[in-house]
Amino acid sequence: MPITDIAYAVYDHTDLDVAERFYTDFGLKVAYRNDAEVAFRPAFERGYCYIARKADRPGMRAIAFTASERADLEAAAEFPEASPITPIEREGGGEKVMLTSPDGLPFEIVHGITPYPAIATRAALVLNNGSVKRRHGEFQRAPLEPAAVLRLGHVALLTNDFKRNYEWMKSRLGLLPSDIMYDDDKNNPLGAFMHMGGGGEWTDHHTLALFPDAEPRVHHFSFEIEDLDAQGLGHEWLQRRGWKPVWGIGRHVYGSQIFDYWFDPAGNIVEHFTDGDLVRPGSQPGYCPMDEESLFAWGPGMRPVDFVRLAARHE
Ligand SMILES: [Fe+2]
After folding, report:
1. What is 164-207 written as a DSSP string?
2. Which domains does the chain have, with CATH numbers?
């Protein structure tokens, strides 16, 4: 049952006005808003990718992935922990199956949501490298504005039972390992970066990542933006608007993304990324030690153990 995309996140927020301000500054567009929720969409031709629901307390409510065929949704409904297929009561329609992961996190597999048409965004900047000049007599003046979010790219989860959850991600979502992380012994893996088995000829190095921590929860959701200048200008924009930075700008090792992490108003971590690696579905996984060098190639200092601890805790 290989999923073909990551679809959306659903979170509860106590103040939808503040959530709308943050996610608009973060570079998403409001798809619709009603008394119960705000739905945000990316610029690419996709459905909504983030839902902020009005609630008395903050919380994580769904991690949704797309099945491109209805037959895959039907197959998902056969898993013992799965709900029946139910209609999605949101603009865009579609159907879903709900599944609870071994760690108790709420997953959804969705099918048939009508995408919003693409929104035009600025093209990637043409760079003059040291040895290759591609721009002659044209100036590099990208405007200061929110970094347009093109699509939702991945989710990172924390687990205290890696093996069980890793097997579940493989069997329920068809995810495959790109890099498997271990402490001392390769036979004792602690984490993994996983790509989509059904995502096309080339797919993101990771659509889901699993890292160890005592308390299972979401670490962050990550959204793709155009280029390094979108990263820098988007950072500047969020900073000037008074939002709280987490960590960035830097470049990861596994997946290679240029990253920038922020706290949303509910204390959840969200990431802007650009220039991530692609892998072929089913390519041989790498094995890598989970050490101080594994988190980033360059950027502000951060120990993996401290990065993990920053993730929001909700009931
Ligand atoms: Fe990430």
Report:
1. HHHHHHHHHH-EEEEEEEESS-TTSEEEEEEEETTS-SSEES-S
2. 5-116+149-309 (3.10.180.10)
